[in-house]
User: Which sequence fits this backbone?
């Protein structure tokens, strides 16, 4: 069922676990995410980045995502990930998305506050996530990154939330998009300080490549939404490569992509169990 992002965050806070936010680009990935959520009886964010909109076409991808969310037996919010401006936010809300993220993290604090306030005004009551601090790496393709700099400052975060009225805040504590070159080192003391300073749920981007133990610790310390993208794409590529290597009789697309859906579902389910959905 299609629900608001705010409902999901409320549930995460009440149940002290995290809602997984998984990025989709097409029907196969959407199917894998929602099958995993149904298998775990989990609520999820079905996230779409602007690169995915360009790839699949805005209207078609939104319509397919909303239809899939409505049809699901579990609560699903359809979310725009890393929208660059208030116009994109307004367009997504007009199209029926139930959760949005504005990303002004590359701006200075005052400019980020101004952009985020405009996004909150454009959201007309829909749940808004914003980002403060730098999260390294690209959203749609995985390079390898050591760390994210600068990390989120707790005093800035407190001011940011008070002045913008956002519903949730994505933080930088050593996390990055894509895989990491070495072991990622998350700053758990900073996470603790952010949790006390910020009255809204915290969001962790860049979960791919972070160990299950570290992710579970983030959830324990108050992260209530965790974003995963690269590990799903990795499962997709591994599956396609293996199946094509063996060959698919009759060029049967349902077998080629069917196997990939199973592999991606498995990747999503593994993450859901770390986030508290056993
Ligand atoms: P990963 O690709 O590292 O999983 O990050 C996903 C993300 O943060 C999407 O916003």
Assistant:
């Amino acid at each position: 069922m299609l629900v608001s992002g705010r409902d999901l965050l409320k549930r995460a806070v009440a149940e002290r676990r995290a809602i997984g936010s998984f990025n989709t680009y097409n029907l196969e990935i959407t199917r894998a995410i929602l099958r995993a959520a149904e298998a775990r009886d989990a609520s999820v964010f079905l996230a779409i980045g602007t690169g995915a909109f360009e790839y699949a076409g805005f209207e078609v991808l939104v319509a397919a995502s909303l239809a899939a969310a409505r049809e699901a037996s579990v609560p699903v919010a359809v979310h725009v990930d890393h929208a660059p401006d208030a116009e994109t936010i307004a367009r997504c809300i007009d199209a029926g998305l139930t959760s949005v993220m504005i990303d002004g993290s590359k701006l200075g604090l005052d400019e980020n506050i101004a952009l985020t306030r405009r996004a909150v005004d454009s959201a007309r009551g829909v749940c808004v996530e914003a980002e403060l601090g730098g999260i390294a790496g690209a959203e749609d393709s995985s390079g390898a990154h050591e760390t994210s700099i600068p990390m989120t400052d707790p005093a800035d975060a407190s001011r940011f939330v008070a002045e913008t009225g956002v519903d949730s805040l994505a933080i930088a504590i050593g996390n990055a998009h894509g895989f990491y070159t070495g072991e990622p080192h998350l700053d758990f003391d900073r996470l603790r300080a952010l949790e006390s300073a910020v009255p809204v749920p915290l969001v962790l981007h860049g979960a791919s490549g972070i160990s299950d133990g570290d992710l579970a610790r983030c959830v324990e310390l108050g992260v209530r939404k965790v974003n995963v993208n690269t590990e799903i794409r990795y499962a997709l590529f591994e599956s396609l490569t293996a199946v094509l290597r063996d060959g698919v009789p009759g060029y049967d697309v349902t077998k080629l992509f069917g196997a990939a859906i199973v592999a991606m579902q498995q990747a999503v389910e593994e993450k859901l169990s770390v986030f508290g959905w056993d």
User: Anything to note?
Assistant: The longest helix spans residues 253-274. DSSP finds eleven helices and ten strands in the chain. The mean pLDDT is 95.
